[in-house]
């Protein structure tokens, strides 16, 4: 028997009425199509969990309008996921080794001028040693928590790590939705959460379900979405269901409208 967070990821997903699911999916698709057409001239719109959190922030405490910038906080996930991939594949023995290998890779790519070098790689390559050490330490902490939280040998197949997925509206090239997850299995999607526990978290996780449902070519019901705070171990579960699709589409509408009005619970 597998317990803890691993058990949550492997647990069977409750059955969903197929007719109700397809009807809710059609309604969500119709709502998003209307949004894409009505707002297409003022795009582009790329809706992410960060946008949902900012739009639904009750007290305006989330700096949604602040431009993105690389920092120890924003870089830790990318570097930490790279380290965990190396650990799962057997290329690294510890999170420290995995992070150091990824940072060294960034330096090499930038030095050689390869096309693989990203903005993150160039930012890392320009840091002084002390700052680079701080970034690495933060990433090691992030990777260690995820690596130690799961029984990786319990998964029938290796999970997908850090594969964020996008859904592009077929009605407007200007509208796209992102579903962020850090660990994906056949039955579930794990999202590592940061910051305080907040009322908007279910809406953030619902976006993952919505994107998975919209991307499915056969109308298949996606797995559950689990939000996990490493600091406290607290979990938030969003099981797939018709109400989740409706809530997800409504949340996207609220983000595009720039309002912080509450949405129905995705529970």
Short description:
Helices cover about 50% and strands about 10% of the residues. With about 270 residues, it is α/β, with parallel strands linked by helices.
Number of strands: 8
- Secondary-structure element string: HHEHHHHHEEEEEHEEH
User: Which structural class best describes the helix and strand composition?
Assistant: alpha/beta
Q: Helical residue percent? A: 40-55%
Round the Cα radius of gyration to an integer and report it. Answer: 19 Å
How would you describe this protein?
- By secondary structure, the protein is an alpha/beta fold.
- 49% of the residues lie in helices and 11% in strands.
- The strands form 2 sheets. The protein has a 5-stranded mixed β-sheet, sandwiched between helices.
Question: Main traits of this protein?
Answer:
267 residues, alpha/beta, 5-stranded mixed beta sheet, 3-stranded mixed beta sheet, 9 helices, 49% helix, 11% strand
List the helices and strands and how they pair.
Layout lengths: L3 H7 L7 H22 L5 E3 L1 H7 L16 H18 L5 H18 L6 H7 L3 H21 L10 E2 L3 E4 L6 E5 L3 E2 L3 E5 L8 H15 L8 E5 L6 E4 L3 H16 L10
Parallel strand pairs: 1-4, 6-7
Antiparallel strand pairs: 2-5, 3-4, 5-6, 7-8
Helix pairs in contact: 2-9, 3-8, 4-5, 4-7, 5-6, 5-7, 8-9
């Amino acid at each position: 028997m597998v317990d803890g967070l691993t058990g949550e990821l492997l647990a069977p997903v409750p059955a969903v009425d197929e007719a109700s699911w397809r009807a809710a999916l059609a309604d969500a698709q119709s709502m998003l199509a209307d949004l894409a057409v009505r707002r297409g001239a003022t795009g582009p719109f790329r809706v992410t969990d960060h946008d949902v959190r900012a739009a639904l922030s009750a007290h305006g405490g989330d700096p949604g309008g602040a431009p993105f910038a690389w920092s120890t906080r924003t870089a830790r996930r990318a570097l930490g996921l790279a380290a965990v991939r190396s650990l799962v594949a057997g290329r690294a023995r510890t999170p420290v080794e995995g992070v150091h290998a990824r940072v060294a890779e960034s330096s090499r790519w930038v030095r050689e001028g390869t096309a693989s070098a990203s903005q993150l790689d160039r930012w890392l390559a320009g840091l002084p040693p002390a700052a680079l050490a701080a970034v690495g330490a933060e990433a090691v902490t992030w990777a260690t928590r995820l690596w130690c939280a799961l029984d990786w040998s319990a998964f029938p197949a290796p999970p997908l790590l850090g594969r964020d997925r996008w859904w592009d509206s077929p009605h407007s090239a200007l509208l796209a939705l992102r579903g962020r997850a850090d660990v994906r299995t056949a039955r579930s999607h794990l999202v590592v959460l940061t910051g305080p526990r907040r009322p908007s978290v279910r809406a953030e996780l619902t976006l993952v379900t919505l994107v998975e449902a919209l991307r499915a070519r056969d109308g298949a019901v996606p797995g559950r979405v689990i939000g996990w705070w490493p600091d406290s171990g607290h979990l938030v579960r969003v099981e797939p269901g018709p109400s989740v699709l409706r809530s997800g589409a409504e949340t996207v509408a609220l983000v595009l409208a720039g309002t912080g009005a509450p949405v129905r619970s995705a529970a």
